[in-house]
Amino acid sequence: MRDDLERLLERLIHASVAERVAISVAALFAAILVGGVLVFVSGGFASCRAGLDLAGVTFCYNPIQVYYELFLGSLGHPLEGDWSPMNYSLATTLRQTTLLIFAGLSVAVAFRAGLFNIGTQGQLVIGGLLTAVTVLFAASYVPGGFVGTVLLIPIGVLAGAVGGGLYGAIPGALKAYAGANEVITTIMLNFIAAGVASTLLSWRFQDPDSANPQTRAIPEYAEIPNVPVVGFSGRMDFSLLALGFAVALMIGIAWLLARTSFGYELRTSGIQPKAAAYGGVDEKRMTVASMTLSGALGGIAGAFWVLMEHGRWLENVPALGFDGIAVSILAGNNPLGVGAAAFLFGVLSSGSNAINTATDVPPELVGVLSGLIILFVAMPEFFRMMGRRYADVGGPERTRSTGGEADD
């Protein structure tokens, strides 16, 4: 039995990209099947006026309708005749995808360096607040209109990257020079970030005209604009320019890791730290640099959350950083795979809203369906990552954490 499991794990560890994609697709269909059965059975315990009667029991929920809304509702029902590619549901899906690309890249970079960055959420909070404050301050010295847009958006994104990067450097330095476990420090820094941001908001940056905990709104011309003619409505809080930047950054990070000396040192320090040190890589410097880059990407996520979605910083920051962990694992810590994983999360988020609107299925059950899909699709990749470190079939210890990958 153990030999069979080891052979299976070895096959999973050394699976090609095509095989891993096939496994993920098969896992997705398995999750849909299990979730469909769960929805159908749950409908037998619900009360409804009409449903499917079987053996004297009325089943209220239709799994086919539920999955129709989950996957097609998130795109605005493209099979219906009056569908428009600029609909609100698709905008919601792509907005979530855009933000999760940044968060997923943040986690993936740290994982590839052999580090667990559980603190992307805190880096996102700090980066978002610094973006809002910096743009509000700079707007007093920058002309409005097109010139203001061209100047303030890069300033805001840069401020978010700097804030998130500096906050990410803290656990990196603690790991490198004090031996502190980055999992513990990043988790603690998440709470510290929320507390510090809330304190700064109430002390200095609170919007005096609002009872809600939020900053003043940034100028409208400082928000990320829509693409003329083919863009989404401004009321949808999504811009194709933001998505384009996220995709370009995703490709840029993939190139950085694969084609530069910095990327080589980062990956080598994660895969074989002793060999990297023997080859002249400064492990401490690389630890700080990796966490700084990871934090900067988290800060950019916060910047786009402010500049694209809300036009201000709010205390109630969504858990994008924590979702980024699942996105990165689902993508196998591959920067190019982060886009597809983020899109799946965007579909599940927007589709869940469509289910709640179009059916009587309770939100708790919808959450279970989304969780099943994420669990089924992510677990093969998770076992593959863990197998690289712990399984004998993976050879001697090749990583210092589950983040290191020899090849993708």
UniProtKB/TrEMBL annotation:
Keywords: Cell membrane, Membrane, Transmembrane, Transmembrane helix
Presence of keyword Cell membrane: yes
GO cellular component, one term: plasma membrane
Membrane topology designation: Multi-pass membrane protein
Single GO molecular function: transmembrane transporter activity
Localization, UniProt: Cell membrane
Membrane-spanning residues: 21-46, 93-111, 123-142, 148-170, 182-203, 238-258, 288-308, 365-383
Chief location bin: membrane
Name of this chain's protein: ABC transporter integral membrane protein
